[in-house]
Specification:
single chain; about 300 residues; alpha/beta; UDP-N-acetylmuramoyl-L-alanine:D-glutamate ligase; 4-stranded mixed sheet
Length: about 300
């Protein structure tokens, strides 16, 4: 097959979404008003967001036999290549998304298929043929380390990394701090949210930007929820405001923001401010519906919102 625009590496899971009467306090309880399931996971979400823009994408992940058919059917329906998906005998990874009445949420991960993901030489060759390779800290350290080594050798031309969670959440299943340290010297786009940034960088937004600059990271995004995002482009920091929409569910907003950035900043060579606005509009539109991929917009959808605001 011809080379892909983007290969994403990491989690493809089943999301169990519970709409609750309230988010319970410790030792408290809640009533589940609604329960739905969908395919999610950072790697799957980013690939799906890019596919909605028309990018040719592929996913490398590991799923259990109990969920393989559901996950692969969803990805193939979105024209995402699944030829490097692995199927194991362990329980497929999943998330429990607990959503309160005001949109606040808690996310709990389980299952062993994603932590069991390992990359072989054929996986690296498959990823190396793509224009961009994306992975996140939810991918196991062994897999991320192999991608970093491939980037160091120049086999991967463009590597994007999302520090998707705080270090305490990653311990024993995700990327190790020392691998993140090593990755900073070769990463082409580094994405991090507020909570994860405080955990790894131990400082505020200015400290994060200063550290990334010192480490030679030329492109980075610090997402700040409803406060928008900061983009680092060389020595320049651009503020990207969030869009004003009727928010239904913020699950997956960071993943769709990343998909928008990859599409415009890396594949289409937009300027940082224009790429940031496109990514913010992408995330905003997805937040208007339930689920991590409830309303993945097309490029035309994003441009329509950009014209309005």
């Amino acid at each position: 097959m011809s080379s892909l625009d983007v290969v994403t590496v990491g989690s493809a899971v089943v999301d169990h979404i519970y709409s609750l009467s309230n988010l319970p306090e410790p030792d408290g309880g809640a009533f589940a008003r609604e329960h739905t399931t969908d395919v999610g996971g950072v790697a799957a979400n980013v690939a799906a967001g890019l596919a909605a823009f028309g990018a040719e994408t592929g996913v490398i992940s590991r799923v259990g036999t109990d969920a393989a058919a559901e996950i692969e059917a969803d990805l193939r329906a979105r024209d995402i290549d699944c030829t490097r998906m692995q199927i194991g005998s362990e329980e497929s990874s999943y998330t429990l998304i607990l959503r309160g009445p005001d949109g606040e949420r808690m996310i709990i991960a389980g299952g062993q298929s994603v932590p069991s993901l390992r990359l072989d030489d054929r996986d690296i060759e498959y990823a190396s043929d793509a224009n961009v390779v994306f992975t996140s800290a939810y991918a196991p350290d062994e897999a991320v380390s192999r991608l970093v080594s491939a980037r160091e050798r120049g086999e991967i031309s463009t590597l994007v990394f999302d520090l998707a969670g705080p270090l305490s959440e990653l311990e024993g299943r995700g990327t190790k701090p020392e691998t993140i340290d090593r990755l900073l010297s070769v990463v082409d786009l580094f994405v991090v949210g507020d909570v994860a940034a405080r955990s790894y960088f131990d400082g505020d937004a200015e400290d994060v930007i200063a550290t990334l600059t010192e480490r030679g990271v030329s492109r980075a995004a610090l997402t700040q929820g409803s406060d928008g995002a900061l983009l680092l482009d060389g020595d320049t920091v651009h503020e990207v405001p969030a869009f004003d929409v009727d928010v239904n569910d913020t699950t997956g907003a960071g993943d769709t923001f990343t998909a928008g950035l990859i599409q415009t900043w890396l594949l289409d060579d937009y300027s940082a401010p224009d790429a940031g606005r496109f990514a913010a509009a992408t995330a905003a539109l997805n937040c208007t519906a339930m689920g991590a991929r409830g309303n993945l917009p097309t490029e035309a959808d994003v441009r329509a919102l950009l014209k309005k605001q």
